[in-house]
Each structure stands twice: as structure tokens, then as C-alpha cells.
Amino acid sequence: FKEYDVKQLSKKHSDKYLQTKLTLQDLNKTLGKISTTARSTNDDLGYNVLFLALGSVIWYEKDTDTTPMEAPVLLVPVEIKRKSIGNPYTVKYNEDSVILNPALTLKLKRDFGINLEDISLEEEELNPIDIFTKIQNKISIKARWKLLNNVYIGLFSFAKFVMYKDLEEYQELITRNNFVE
Questions:
Q1: How far apart are CA 155 and CA 79, in angstroms?
Q2: pTM of the model
Q3: Which pLDDT tens digit goes with each residue over 14-37?
Q4: CB-based contacts of 60: which residues, under 8 Å, 6+ apart?
């Protein structure tokens, strides 16, 4: 990621279309599967798992590791729809809150002492470039770490993460009541 001026971007990076390397046939097949899974999860479990992921952090568990890890940064809740089979898919913001990836936030804080919790995502202030700049500054303490300026659509579920956070928060109570030996 390098800070940039939106006005200086080429048309293909400032229009209302997302770029992809997939063929039209593969794109339609992939979006259909993602859309069906997201809708089914929302109907069955009552929460959204479909997000447009903006940016990702590349990091290494240890300074000597050669295998990079990657996780998305900003997660924008979206829905994928199309009017009929012959029409193109559309990706639309679903009005839920944009979030910093909670699993990444916890991982960086717990394992590397990098705190992302002070980065504001207030809707009136939401500017991905500013957020990426702050994250870039925070991870710059690690020599090989990078923040990529990329976009993905994917399914991200944090159900287990919420359970994990509850266990962490109530660990003392659980231990005291002999639920865990």
C-alpha cells in the first residue's frame, strides 16, 4: 500500500465496477456459489458472512519464517444479487457497519503487541486510505510485513471468534466454577 490521491486513479479503478481476473463464466459461477452460501447462512443462522475485504496484511509468525500469512483488513458487509439469470451480478453495501477484521486485530495485539483497536471506523470519518496509512505505520515495526491495497469478495464467519472471546473474557469464572479442569 502506498498512499494515493483518488482523483489520480485511472478510470477502471474509480468507476463502479470491480476488477477480476476470472472469465465471465467463472465469475458468474463463483458469484452464484458465494451468493447462495451467504444467503443460506443468513437465513439459517441470522448473521451476515459476505464481505468485501479491502486491503490485507502480509505477516510472518517469526522473523525467520519463509511462509507469509495473509489476512484481510477492512470488511464491508455486502450482498450479491442479480435480477435474472441473464443479468449481471451486482454487489451492494448492505448498510451494516464496516469493521476491522476482529481476528486480525486480536492476532496482532496478542502475538505482536500491535494495537489496531484505536483506529476509528466512525461512518462520517470512514476513509480507507487514512485507515490503511495508520495500519501501515503500525506494522512498519516489522521489516518484512506489508499492507496490500487489494479487494476481495468472500465469506468470513466470526461465530467461533465470538465464542473464543467469551471464553477468554470469562476464563476466571469458568475456572472458579470447575467447568474446566
A1: 11
A2: 0.80
A3: 788 888 889 989 999 999 999 999
A4: 67, 68, 69, 142, 144, 145
> In Å, what is the CA distance from 4 to each residue of 14, 67, 72, 91, 161?
12, 29, 20, 24, 33
| Site of grid cell 457497519 | 97
Alpha carbon distance, N-terminus to C-terminus of the chain:
46
Q: What are the phi and psi torsion angles at 89 (to 5°)?
A: -75, 150
pLDDT tens-digit profile of 145-166? 999 989 999 999 876 655 655 6
| Per-residue cell: 70 | 495473509
- DSSP of the chain: -----GGGS-GGGTSS----SS-HHHHHHHHHHHHHHHHHHHHHHSS--EEEEEEEEEE-SSTT--S-EEEEEEEEEEEEE-SSTTSPPEEEE-SSPPEE-HHHHHHHHHHH----TTS---GGG--HHHHHHHHHHHHTTSTT-EEEEEEEEEE---HHHHHHHHHHHTHHHHHHTTS--
